[in-house]
Amino acid sequence: MKHLKYIILFLTLILTFSCSRADEDLDVLSQEDISNIILNVKDDATGITQTYNYTINSVTNPVIKLTDGKSYTVNAIFLNGNEDETESIKAAKDEHFLIFDFQGSQINLTRIDDASSTRTDGNRVGLMTKWNVVKAINSTSPQLVLTVNHDAVSVSEQQNGTAFGTANGGETDAMAIFGISN
To answer: What is the pLDDT along the chain (182 residues), one digit of tens a residue?
Structure first.
């Protein structure tokens, strides 16, 4: 009888700790986490697409090769490990907005999102864009700073300085830096 009490206590402890999900939750990335931002840049004249993959918090930045006077159609893809989170962004499109800041380049951007990534306020998230390159290298160290904003109070697609798009409030889900060359 004395040993039975210890055996029951031991089994109860094993079941309690083996069924605990607390440790598992630490290993599972939340749906909002973004590990990679991928830009598929298609030259509109040739139809050739180049892929540029930015890994969040990387010490190296991919360099996007652009030619002055050319137009490109750009598709943004967001990954969480191997999971494509782009559809999650579309599903919560009213909570997301992309800001494209072309520093040291003269590039005109137009958002061409379809209904699946157009917010109810009429602003397009920015998953599909058209880039018209006036001058890829307009100063030293040209780069694109791409910011994914979450839960902004209001957004605008309008150009503000070198940035296409602004967001009031909210927080940054992810930010990527791509170099620009020609």
So the answer is: 555 554 554 544 444 444 433 433 332 324 358 999 999 999 999 999 999 999 998 889 999 999 999 999 999 999 999 999 999 999 999 999 999 999 999 999 999 999 999 999 999 999 999 999 999 999 999 999 999 999 999 999 999 999 999 999 999 999 999 999 99
Place of tokens 């309690």: 16
Q: What angle do CA 134, 138, 142 make, to 5 degrees?
A: 110
Report d(CA 172, CA 56) in Å as an integer.
13
Please tell me the distance from the alpha carbon of residue 26 to that of residue 19, in angstroms, as a whole number: 15
Instruction: Compute CA distances 10 → 7, 116, 173, whole Å.
Output: 5, 54, 45
CA atoms of 40 and 73, how far apart (whole Å): 8
Which residue matches tokens 């590990």? Answer: 35
